[in-house]
Amino acid sequence: MLGLAKRVKARFLLASTSEVYGSPEEHPQNEEYWGHVNCVGPRACYDEGKRVAETLTYSYARQDNVDVRVARIFNTFGPRMNCNDGRVVSNFILQALRDEDITIYGNGSATRSFQYVHDLVDGLIALMGSDCTEPVNLGNPQEFSIKEFADMVIGLVNEQKDQPSTSKVMYLPAVTDDPQRRKPDISRAKERLRWEPRVSVRGGLQETSGGLRDYS
Ligand SMILES: O=c1ccn([C@@H]2O[C@H](COP(=O)(O)OP(=O)(O)O[C@H]3OC[C@@H](O)[C@H](O)[C@H]3O)[C@@H](O)[C@H]2O)c(=O)[nH]1
Predict the structure, then answer these.
(1) Within the chain, how many helices (H) and strands (E) appear?
(2) CB of 112 sitting under 6 A from ligand 1
(3) Which residues are in the NAD(P)-binding domain (predicted)?
(4) CA proximity to 92, closest of 29, 22, 17, 144
């Protein structure tokens, strides 16, 4: 793709990820942070794959003047997301809708920041229209522990169901190398793109769980 962008002189967008920060030792994470990744761990293929994608992108930018934009995308959700993607948002909503146990990996103290898909799309459009060639975090800085998030999802689903959900929280073994904290510093996006998230996590979850009802 980078070779193609070079040939046709296209602006190139890399959809990178917060995973490039690995299990961060700095909090929140800004774009200057180099990350903390176990290169031989079970998550390494994804983390290192995305990191080398960034490396190649900036190599083409330096050597061949390819016009690049790099978005580091934090956990994103929204209507019509794949209900089987295994991520926490779809898992918890479906489990609550189906009265199944809510599966928390570890003790529920790990944190994540969730962004609604419309905000992400606005951010990507703003990035592509900007002169910002450095990596930019796109995420919602509102941070939840996974236990807090489980409680919020159960509460929201209960508002939508005829009968309250009977789901209980079940604690399963922690996932190896699961990052314990993750929250974007979005100063650069605010300053350079004039962008920040507008949809609350709660509002976005209401839209998403409405859509996932068809799969319950
Ligand atoms: O059923 C579940 C699913 C997940 N989790 C936990 O919830 C947290 C979030 O896990 P997710 O699988 O949703 O995803 P992550 O936040 O780790 O990464 C995600 O967001 C950033 C993107 O760049 C990645 O591509 C995406 O996988 C983790 O601590 C995970 O262990 C549960 O406790 N239970």
Answers:
(1) 7, 9
(2) yes
(3) 6-208
(4) 144
**Under 8 Å between Cβ of 4 and 10:** yes
Residue 46 designated active-site: yes
CA of 66 relative to ligand 1 center, distance in Å: 33
How far are the Cα atoms of 64, 89, 113, 182 from residue 211, in angstroms, in the given order? Answer: 44, 13, 21, 27
Q: How confident is the model at residue 160 (pLDDT cuts 50, 70, 90)?
A: confident
Which residues are bridge partners to 68 per DSSP?
A: 12
Report the separation in Å between the CA atom of 157 and the middle of ligand 1, taken as the mean of its atom positions: 20
Q: Does the model's pTM come out above 0.90?
A: yes
What six digits make up the tokens of 119? Answer: 């905000």
Cβ–ligand 1 distance for 175 under 6 Å, the answer yes
ipTM: 0.96
